[in-house]
């Protein structure tokens, strides 16, 4: 409530009963920044993975992180633009649950990917000589698939 009073003094004009229009516009702008930055990272990662004969596993993880963050940015843009355009809550309970599910899934995929990056760095430092045999491309793909499966299950 204090944030709303600061952003819209007096009586804030709310779109859905929870957030002022000014805050929604800020969220849309942040969503666009997130999308453009992660599109750049994803594009660069794909170029690296195509050019390098034996790419490092970290590039796969960075690409997956950019993909999940890109999905969050797109979700924010779509959800808040629809709220701003309608001026009210446009979805019922099912739509609200779907929005929460999309947001939680993308955020969980991001968190799990950061965990994979940390484990990858730990394995590289701890098992430097055996790293190439422990962390294979196939295992990296399986780990990435598991992050999305776990995120969807949550």
UniProtKB/TrEMBL annotation:
Membrane-related topology note: Multi-pass membrane protein
A molecular-function term among this protein's GO annotations: G protein-coupled receptor activity
Gene3D superfamilies in UniProt: Rhodopsin 7-helix transmembrane proteins (1.20.1070.10)
Membrane spanning stretches: 21-41, 61-84, 96-119, 131-153
Keyword Magnesium tagged: no
GO terms for biological process, alphabetical: adenylate cyclase-activating adrenergic receptor signaling pathway; positive regulation of MAPK cascade
InterPro entries: GPCR_Rhodpsn, GPCR_Rhodpsn_7TM
Domain of life of the organism encoding this protein: Eukaryota
Family designation: Belongs to the G-protein coupled receptor 1 family.
Protein name listed in UniProt: G-protein coupled receptors family 1 profile domain-containing protein
Organism the protein comes from: Meganyctiphanes norvegica
């Amino acid at each position: 409530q204090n944030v709303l009073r600061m952003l819209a003094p007096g009586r804030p004009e709310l779109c859905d009963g929870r957030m002022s229009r000014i805050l929604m516009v800020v969220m849309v702008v942040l969503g666009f920044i997130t999308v453009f930055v992660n599109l750049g990272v994803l594009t660069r990662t794909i170029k690296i993975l195509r050019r390098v004969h034996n790419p490092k596993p970290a590039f796969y993880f960075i690409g997956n992180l950019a993909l999940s963050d890109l999905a969050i940015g797109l979700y924010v843009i779509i959800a808040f633009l629809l709220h701003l355009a309608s001026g009210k809550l446009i979805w019922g309970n099912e739509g609200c649950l779907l929005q929460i599910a999309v947001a939680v899934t993308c955020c969980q995929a991001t968190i799990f990917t950061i965990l994979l990056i940390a484990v990858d760095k730990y394995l590289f430092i701890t098992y430097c000589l055996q790293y190439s045999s422990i962390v294979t491309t196939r295992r990296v793909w399986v780990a990435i698939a598991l992050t999305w499966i776990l995120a969807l299950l949550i």
